């Protein structure tokens, strides 16, 4: 790589900054987001790596307000089912804001397409690598949004079959994210689930091993419902 | 968000630049990577979003050269099996460089830990969201590496059970990536699989839908082996 192409210290710091300051947002304002920013978020998604270059991401922009209401209800149904699964933390869970579907300016559903079975490259033994690629694309969207001062939240609290049916998706396709996008009054200083005392972050040092998985490695989590 | 916290045009452009210039690398030099860069890549990984804040990423740094050789052989085994699955494109596939395990300076295996079943938040109906979180973490590593002028490649061509056994991983944990990291002579201008005429990129416009999945949407790919 020639020196002329090297990133300046300012550029590198911007990359570190946006990675550190990105947050999974749940609190939004409803004022419109510049359509050019949404477009640039989607372009960034499309620049993500994908296994065998299969580009397995599809994006449904939900502008229909009745459809948005249906998405909300579908998520709320799963929220109640999740609450039941939380056991003794049920009432604590019910106080958390887990989505911003009716509040935010823009909703984009990200999905895996049908016809994926023909893509063998890099996923013969790990077919779920298509989801990995879509996730890299969504991370790109998140970083662009943050750099533009726009919040984004990834909601995965839904029945994927019910959502697929609602969106008239073909069999063997699969929705993986309801992305809430919009202006925010402020970004959380720390992950919202930490700020709300739902759980704590564990230090990176616990997650780095040398060569082999250590015999002493154990799940450190004390929050059984995560 | 107060104006003082807004990203400057220079910062925003750096974010767009790194997303556009990141490449899934397969060609590496073997000279050492500054350990501080590796550390910052792992810190960036750990700043990724995770479903219910479960932080499902684990990183095995492979410094043992005999172990690295075993990783290479394991990947080469799957490469041959993938070639067989490619049918008429087998010989074309065999000419591609699909990994740089013996060439690069650093190898990190990324894995999902055991004990994930207790995390219900955001994954009661979509348990694979843990892989989504690890993928966001890996995308962060990729972007930091690129900003630092370092190449990274995500190799998923392996039998995960065989790799787990090799790395002495517990049952129900799962390796999802062999990350090759190192200096490169140059970054590909376009994805390597495009430069090698393996496949073509399809335009973003084909992948954006309005509200519902269109009846006319079809898999456009002509490369049946991806």
Q: How many DSSP E strands of chain A? A: 5
> Main beta sheet of chain A, described?
4 strands, antiparallel
| Low-pLDDT sequence parts of chain A | 220-226
Q: How far apart, in Å, are the first and last alpha carbons of chain A?
A: 43 Å
> Can you give the helix content of chain A as a percent range?
25-40%
CATH class of chain A, named Alpha Beta
Structural class of chain A: alpha+beta
What gross morphology of chain A would you assign?
Answer: globular
Helices and strands, with pairings:
2 copies of one chain form a homodimer.
Chain A lengths: L8 H13 L13 H12 L11 E5 L2 H21 L4 H5 L11 E7 L16 H19 L3 E5 L4 H7 L7 E9 L9 H4 L12 E3 L16
Antiparallel strand pairs in A: 1-2, 2-4, 3-4
Helix pairs in contact in A: 2-5
Describe this structure in words.
- With 226 residues, chain A is of the alpha+beta class.
- Chain A has a single domain (21-186), classed as 3-Layer(aba) Sandwich (NADH Oxidase), CATH 3.40.109.
- Chain A has 7 helices and 5 strands.
- Chain A has a 4-stranded antiparallel beta sheet with strand order 1-2-4-3, with helices on both faces.
- The longest helix of chain A has 21 residues, at 65-85.
- Chains A and B meet through helix 1, helix 2, strand 1, helix 3 and helix 5 of A and helix 1, helix 2, strand 1, helix 3 and helix 5 of B.
- Strand 1 (58-62) of chain A pairs parallel with strand 5 of chain B.
Summarize this structure briefly.
Chain A is α+β, with helices and mostly antiparallel strands. Chain A has helices at about 10-20, 35-45, 65-85, 90-95, 130-145, 160-165, 190-195, and strands at about 60, 105-110, 150-155, 175-180, 210.
């Amino acid at each position: 790589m020639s020196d002329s192409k090297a990133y300046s210290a300012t550029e590198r710091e911007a990359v570190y900054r946006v990675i550190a300051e990105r947050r999974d947002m749940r609190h939004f304002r409803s004022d419109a987001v510049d359509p050019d920013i949404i477009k640039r978020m989607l372009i960034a998604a499309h620049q993500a790596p994908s296994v065998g270059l299969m580009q397995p991401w599809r994006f449904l922009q939900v502008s229909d307000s009745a459809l948005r209401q249906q998405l909300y209800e579908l998520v709320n149904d799963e929220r109640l089912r999740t609450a039941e699964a939380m056991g003794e933390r049920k009432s604590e869970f019910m106080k958390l804001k887990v989505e911003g579907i009716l509040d935010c300016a823009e909703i984009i559903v990200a999905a895996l397409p049908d016809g994926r079975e023909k893509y063998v490259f890099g996923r013969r033994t790990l077919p779920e690598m298509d989801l990995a690629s879509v996730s890299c694309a969504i991370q790109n969207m998140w970083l662009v949004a943050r750099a533009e001062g726009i919040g984004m939240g990834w909601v995965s609290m839904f029945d994927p079959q019910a959502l697929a049916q609602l969106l008239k998706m073909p069999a063997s396709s699969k929705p993986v994210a309801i992305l809430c996008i919009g202006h925010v009054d402020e970004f959380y200083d720390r992950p919202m689930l930490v700020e709300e005392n739902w759980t704590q972050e564990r230090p990176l040092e616990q997650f780095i091993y040398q060569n082999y998985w250590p015999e002493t490695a154990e799940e450190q989590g004390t929050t059984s419902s995560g």
